[in-house]
Amino acid sequence: MQNEFIHITPCKWQEFNPPSENFLADYFAYQLNEFFNQQKQRELFLNQTITAPFIIGIAGSVAAGKSTFAKKVEDLLNQNYPDLKTAVVSTDGFLMSNNELKAKGLMDQKGFPVSFNWQALNNFLCALKVGKNNVPYRLYSQEISDLVTDRVGKISNCNIVIIEGINILQVPEKFQPPSDFLDLGIYLDAADEDLEYWFMQRFHSLLKLNENNPDNFYYEWAHWPIEKADKLAKDVWQSVNYKNLVKYIAPSKTRADLIIKKQKDHTFSDFYIKKF
Question: pTM of this prediction?
């Protein structure tokens, strides 16, 4: 990785505090200026208006904090660019439904490349890149751990679209890599033991949150002895999430434009910017 990325001197950057002095704020400003300048040049050359948004992809392991980071990026961009409309989308919405996964015998590989509808993700990204409006996408519910069937999301007149998900930098078989459609790819990196710790933290939060919600995916586990529930969660981490990380997610970091190293307290310690 040292040969492909420039390592920014380690320092304890607080997450967007304060934005005006933050490396990330300056980095986004640089990337956006480059993008909009190139867009203007293309418009002049083609003699037509181009409405494609700036697309940011955020990848990383399960429990790496992708959703939280994406929301903070959105807040930062809204604060610094109030005239630009920004939206956040999760690639969880491009998973196959639980029924489809069960029918194909893939439930134990949920989150692996084989469990995603890559064609739908490609179609979505392509529609954004050609400037289409009201682009629909499916929603995923963490409560039921499945796709939402009664409504969809839509991207309308957005200048910036942030797409977060474990697979956004991966190279699927037989399909165009999603990163081909990105203007900026970011990978959140962390030590294996920190990722497992955050995974267990989130698991405990979900148990507590749903102990009185019998319709929730975690309700039954919330009423198990904590030792039994923890053993299940750790088994899931090792056999599913960690396996997915090592085989498919972590190798995709080399396709990122920016790799951010996180510490156990969620602060950023290192930045790696791609040289080319």
Answer: 0.92
Split into its structural domains, the chain has a count of 1
Contact 121, 91 (CB under 8 A): yes
Q: Which amino acid is at 140?
A: Y
Residue 276 located in a structural domain:
no
Show the domain range for 140: 5-270
In a domain, 132, yes or no: yes
CATH number assigned to the domain comprising residue 84: 3.40.50.300
Rounded Cα distance, 206 and 222, in Å: 8
Tens-level pLDDT at each residue, the chain (276 residues): 556 888 775 544 444 443 334 788 889 999 999 999 999 999 999 999 888 999 999 999 999 999 999 999 999 999 999 999 999 999 999 999 999 999 999 999 999 999 999 999 999 999 999 999 999 999 999 878 899 999 999 999 999 999 999 999 999 999 999 999 999 999 999 999 999 999 999 999 989 988 888 878 788 889 999 999 999 999 999 999 999 999 999 999 999 999 999 999 998 888 899 887
Half-sphere exposure of 46 (CA within 13 A, CB side): 9
